[in-house]
């Protein structure tokens, strides 16, 4: 029952996801206000997480995994502000793999709204995301693959080993990291 209150980001607005974007659970309204006050621009994107997000990758060759479709949208204004920030040399920080997937889907397709089956896995290039804030995800999950793609195998193996040794919490209510 507590999940109805606590398993929700402070900035959630639309019904449609089966789960919260867990990296966003670390943010509070006062923290967002502090970030804005220090000069960070906070923009919104939407991706409706579905049950298939939690289906493990069963293929030995991850490139053969068939990613599920999820609905996403980015406003014209947000898209323009992101593009301008990139032109100005500013870093785009995605809060969570779902936000990252949304940004990269827009970059790949040029469409601000639709469905995407974009699967980010090691070897992929990121066109929009410069920094990723994410939780520690479970092995072989579709959520872990973009983390390894973004941070690289060596760094992520070290980070996950340290997380295990220090008994970090994994998954939905878990600890988070920032990958530069």
Notes on the protein architecture:
The chain is of the alpha+beta class. 33% of the residues lie in helices and 13% in strands. The protein has 6 helices and 6 strands, in the order ααββαβαββααβ. Strands 1-2-4 form a 3-stranded antiparallel β-sheet. The protein has a 3-stranded mixed β-sheet with strand order 3-5-6. The chain is globular and about 40 Å long.
Q: What order do the helices and strands come in, and which of them pair?
A:
Layout: H1 3-6, H2 29-37, E1 45-47, E2 70-74, H3 76-87, E3 93-95, H4 97-109, E4 113-116, E5 131-135, H5 144-151, H6 153-165, E6 176-179
Helix pairs in contact: 5-6
**Strand order across the largest sheet:** 1-2-4
Anisotropy-based shape: globular
Weakly predicted, low-confidence segments: none
SSE class: alpha+beta
The run of helices and strands is HHEEHEHEEHHE
Helix content, binned percent: 25-40%
Task: Give the number of helices.
Answer: 6
Could you give a short account of the major beta sheet? 3 strands, antiparallel
**What average pLDDT do the residues reach?**
90
Q: Compute the number of strand runs.
A: 6
Q: What is the CA-CA span between the terminal residues?
A: 36 Å
């Amino acid at each position: 029952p507590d999940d109805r209150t606590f398993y929700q980001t402070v900035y959630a607005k639309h019904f449609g996801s089966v789960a919260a974007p867990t990296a966003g659970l670390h943010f509070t309204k006062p923290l967002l206000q502090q970030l804005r006050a220090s000069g960070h621009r906070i923009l919104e994107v939407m991706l409706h997480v579905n049950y298939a997000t939690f289906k493990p990758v069963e293929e030995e060759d991850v490139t053969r995994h068939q990613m599920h479709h999820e609905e996403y949208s980015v406003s014209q204004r947000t898209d323009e502000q992101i593009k301008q920030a990139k032109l100005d040399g500013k870093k785009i920080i995605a809060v969570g793999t779902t936000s990252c997937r949304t940004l990269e889907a827009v970059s790949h397709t040029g469409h601000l709204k639709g469905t995407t089956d974009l699967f980010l896995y090691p070897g992929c290039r990121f066109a929009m995301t410069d920094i990723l804030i994410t939780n520690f995800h479970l092995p072989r999950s579709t959520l872990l693959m973009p983390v390894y793609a973004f941070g690289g195998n060596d760094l992520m193996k070290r980070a996950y080993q340290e997380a295990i040794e220090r008994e970090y919490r994994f998954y939905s209510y878990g600890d988070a990291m920032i990958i530069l």
